[in-house]
TrEMBL record:
Stretches that traverse the bilayer: 7-31, 62-83, 90-112, 132-149, 156-178, 184-204, 216-239, 259-284
Organism phylogeny: Bacteria, Bacillati, Actinomycetota, Actinomycetes, Micromonosporales
Record-given protein name: PAP2 superfamily protein
All residue ranges annotated as the Phosphatidic acid phosphatase type 2/haloperoxidase domain in the record: 90-198
SMART domains the record matches: acidPPc (SM00014)
Amino acid sequence: MRETARGWTAVWLVVLALIQTAAFGLVWRFAVHTELGQWLDTVALTGNRIGQDRIDGPVDTILNAMSVVSLLAATAVIGFIALIRGRKALAVTATLLIAGANVTTQLLKYYLVRPDFGIDPERAAAGNSLPSGHTAVAASVAVALILVLPRKLRVAGAFLGAGYAAAAGVATLSAGWHRPSDAVAAYLVVGAWAAAAGLVLLFFQREQAVVEPGEAHRVAGAVLGGIGVVALLVSAAALSWLVDRSTIPVEALGRRPLFVGYAGSAAGIVGMVAVVAALVLVVVHRLVPRWKG
């Protein structure tokens, strides 16, 4: 029965990895290689100017906190938490998750090509920006934290980590550093790596592992996932409302559509990271179970 449960968990993780990889491809194809996708991203980036003076301080604080040094420090802390729990395989896997997600993000950003449709001439020279490196840093640390924290702290860690990763994604949009699709794509990269890390943890799972269904964080996962789904639906409604105005040049749009584009995109960023974190939270008890004795 234990082997059967592990087998089904492995199948579920493979499905999640494939779904998130396919979703990444769809986001990239629509947001980068279609005129409508580029137009929607540009509307959101232009709308970030509304009320920007009020949030410049917090945005700068969030973004300045994400550097190579801070990433290394966070990775070291996460590895230390796993090691003091006696989980060597978990420490290595969590570190590989963070490193793999961030290296993948940088490689994709470098090799993916963004065609110029003349929609965003101000940023055309910058080229491709998908996925967002800053967002990948925050999301990978948040997901790794869910994996290494003990059971009693996982729910708090999941909500705090998802909130931090969401704030990072919205901050890159608010600062004009990244398009909303860049942040969404980064979450999907991290989610796919999280599924791969789960498969590694299953492979190295010890015989004395005890998986108790009662230890699953179903309620917290449902709440976090529900928040994500609602936010994604709000985003879809906002962007659908904008589609009818896609024939209007971005610079000719009024304050209302620009705000709808910005707020709707921010909701999509929040929704995506909440769903990714919820998927990790509801399966983590099978990946990092208790030990006998």
